[in-house]
Design a protein that fits this description.
InterPro entries: Cation/H_exchanger_TM, K/H_exchanger, Na+/solute_symporter_sf, NAD(P)-bd_dom_sf, RCK_C, RCK_C_sf, RCK_N. This is Cation:proton antiporter. It is found in: Membrane. Strand 1 (406-410), helix 19 (414-425) and strand 2 (430-434) form a beta-alpha-beta unit. The protein is of the alpha/beta class. Helices cover 63% and strands 8% of the residues. The protein has helices at residues 2-25, 30-41, 51-72, 75-80, 82-106, 111-122, 126-136, 142-170, 177-211, 215-235, 240-251, 257-280, 285-290, 292-316, 321-330, 336-347, 353-375, 377-384, 414-425, 437-445, 458-463, 479-492, 508-514, 522-537, 542-554, 597-600, 635-647; strands at residues 406-410, 430-434, 450-452, 469-474, 497-502, 518-521, 563-564, 575-580, 603-609, 612-615, 628-633. It has 27 helices and eleven strands. The longest helix is centred in the first third of the chain and has 35 residues, at 177-211. A six-stranded parallel β-sheet has the order 3-2-1-4-5-6, with helices on both faces. A five-stranded mixed β-sheet has the order 7-8-11-9-10, covered by helices on one side.
Length: 649
């Protein structure tokens, strides 16, 4: 039986992998792939698992999601944006919820069910919207700021929902004022207790964990804190997700926030995948087919209704038509937290299967439509105004003027940023491309000419002004991507200098043949810089040091290759090996030109005789007993060369 369960789990994971790969190619979010997997593996498909079986594991995904949301929840940022967050955000949530409740009650739903439906519809997708705003470069624009403000309040509004839903479930669908007040009191007590714990205990705990320098201990501590606070709020009769959110919020201002987020992310993503699979198991395709026209009707009503609410509120606040309409389209979809609300509502039996199926399908389709709506929001807004939509290849990248000579930096990591600082100090114009949206956002916020774009795409390079670049610097080290980008850059900018950063010089000649003007291997350059400091501190004149460094670079770092082996030998590297010729050795009396060095595939680096070292001896050099030959080559080749020199075979 255990083997049968493992086989079902394996098949479910294979379906999830295939679905994610397919939908990512279509530009759709991975959430839809998990939902599809749940449909296939659940009661509506092969019936491998029930939603109840998945619930316990899936709930941990919600806990970790709320914990990471708390880490991102910045109180100072919230306070700085308090007018739009608590003004526009609260108005959007309240108006959308109330209107949806009235419509649901008019269609025969009870007040509690109508509240759940209204809360579900009111929430938008924070993950999808922020990703798309990053890609479009809209986070600093007015419609981007307004959208983020609404999303912040929606995330905050999840907290009272997490308090109310368990209460409604225990009360069998009726809601009494004293129960609400008691639940709020428990929530306040939990917040005060966790606040005290987070202020005095958690920093000391993580200080000790950080001093241990153990990644395993740090990850384990983060998981325990998230689950322990969740268990505490569950013990108080509230949801686990609420406690995890509070813990994350308390740790969000600490110096460990980034590390905690990075450590939690793999567990969160895996468990959230299982959560969305469990949501997919709620879908009954017989019901979907039976209610298909209701689903499409509700979908149209939700997208248009949410857009009209946001647009109307922004117009009342005095925002221009274009800003209002673009913001409305950005927030028109239903979000991933709606699935959390629906899962809790189904768990507490607050919604009928037919209603939950319709709402899940509406959320799924609206999230699938979200990328298209956001990317074309500006053009749709212009069309609504009766204006002609503009066509742009990429709104992020600037148009480079004719005659501008700039340095194009491809990759804005640590190396790219260091180069940019020195160029900026010398007033040399530059432009950088990078694929990390967070890094691009931070740099652009600081006023740096950094843009989101893939250097492997011809259109992006053209728009970045590669035809005007006098120098192109590749700072990333992925060999396949580097080779592809060099060919593309050399084709588009045949006269530009192309500098390439690599880890080492294993592919130095290949990269130069591909079109690189100069290849800079960082490990060897680091060694040269250290050598230059050592020589300078020893009193060697600076001009002589510079000549030696230039000689090494001109000769492709040949004297930085080969090292004497130790106990642990890497047989893939070239090593130095000293061969002493005793009396009677086969090579004694022979000239260097008589020894088949090319056949042996080793290099004679130097010969030591009488305590003196001779570099690059001539072919007429006659070997004597006591000579020490310093050979360079792969270990097995050096062994064969030594056997030939000593024994003649």
């Amino acid at each position: 039986m255990e083997q049968g369960i493992l086989l079902k789990i394996l098949l479910m994971l294979l379906i999830a992998i295939a679905a994610i790969a397919l939908l990512r190619r279509l530009g759709l979010p991975a959430i839809l792939a998990y939902l599809l997997t749940g449909v296939v593996a659940g009661p509506g498909g092969f019936d491998w698992f029930s939603q109840h079986q998945m619930h316990s594991v899936a709930e941990l995904g919600v806990v970790l999601l709320m914990f990471t949301l708390g880490l991102e929840f910045s109180v100072p940022k919230l306070w700085a944006m308090r007018r739009t967050v608590f003004g526009l955000g609260s108005a959007q949530v309240l108006v959308t919820t109330l209107l949806t409740m009235l419509i649901a009650m008019a269609l025969g739903q009870q007040s509690v069910q109508a509240l759940v439906i209204g809360s579900t519809i009111a929430l938008s997708s924070t993950a999808i919207v922020l990703k798309l705003l990053n890609e479009q470069g809209w986070l600093r624009r007015r419609h981007g700021e307004l959208s983020v403000s609404v999303l912040l309040f929606q995330d905050l509004a999840v907290v009272p929902l997490l308090i109310l839903l368990p209460l409604l479930g225990e009360a069998d669908g009726t809601l009494a004022l004293h129960n609400v007040l008691f639940a709020l009191l428990k929530g306040t007590v939990a917040f005060i207790a966790l606040m005290a714990f987070g202020k005095w205990a958690l920093p000391k705990v993580f200080d000790e964990v950080a001093r241990s320098r153990s990644n395993e201990l740090f990850v384990l501590s983060a998981l325990v804190v998230a689950l322990l606070t969740g268990a505490f709020t569950q013990w108080l009769g509230l949801s686990m997700a609420l406690g995890a959110f509070m813990a994350g919020m308390l740790l969000g201002e600490s110096q460990y926030r980034r590390q905690l987020e990075a450590d939690i992310r793999p567990f969160r993503d895996l468990l959230m995948g299982l959560f969305f699979i469990s949501i997919g198991m709620l879908l009954d395709f017989q019901l979907v087919m039976a209610y298909w026209w209701q689903i499409l009707l509700v979908l149209l009503a939700v997208i248009s209704g949410k857009a009209l609410v946001v647009h109307g509120l922004l117009k009342l606040a005095g925002e221009p038509f274009r800003i209002s309409s673009v913001s409305a389209l950005i927030l028109a979809q239903v979000g991933e937290f709606s699935f959390v609300v629906l899962a809790l509502a189904v768990n507490y039996q607050l919604l009928e299967p037919e209603v939950s199926t319709v709402l899940v399908m509406v959320a799924v389709i609206s999230m699938a439509l979200a990328p298209t709506l956001v990317r074309h929001a500006v053009n749709i807004s212009k069309w609504l105004q009766g204006l002609k939509p503009s066509v742009k290849d990429d709104p992020q990248l600037p148009r480079v003027e004719e005659g501008t000579e700039l340095v194009l930096i491809l990759g804005y990591g640590r190396v790219g940023q260091t180069i940019a600082r020195f160029l900026k100090a010398e007033a040399v114009p530059f432009l950088a491309l990078d694929l990390d949206p967070t890094r691009v956002q931070e740099a652009k916020r600081a006023g740096e000419p950094v843009y989101f774009g893939d250097a492997c795409k011809r259109a992006i390079l053209k728009q970045a002004g590669i035809t005007h670049a006098k120098m192109i610097v590749l700072t990333f080290c992925e060999s396949r991507a580097v080779d592809e980008v060099i060919h593309l850059c050399r084709t588009l900018a045949p006269t530009a200098k192309i500098l390439v950063r690599t880890r080492d010089d294993r592919e130095l000649k290949l990269l130069e043949q591909a079109g690189a003007s100069q290849v800079i291997p960082e490990t060897l350059e680091g060694s040269l810089m250290l050598v230059s400091q050592v020589l300078y501190q020893c009193g060697v004149p600076l001009t002589r040091i510079l000549k030696r460094l230039e000689f090494e670079r001109r000769n492709h770092y040949q004297y930085l290759h080969g090292f004497f082996s130790g106990t642990e030998t890497d047989f893939t590297l070239e090593l130095l090996h000293a061969v002493a010729l005793p009396r009677g050795a086969n090579a004694v009396g022979q000239r260097l030109g008589d020894i088949p060095w090319a056949k042996l595939r080793v290099e004679l680096r130097a010969i030591r005789r009488g305590g003196e070292e001779f570099d690059n001896p001539s072919e007429d050099w006659q070997l004597r007993a006591g000579d020490v030959l310093i050979l360079l080559g792969k270990p097995r080749r050096v062994e064969k060369a030594e056997a030939l020199l000593l024994q003649g075979s």
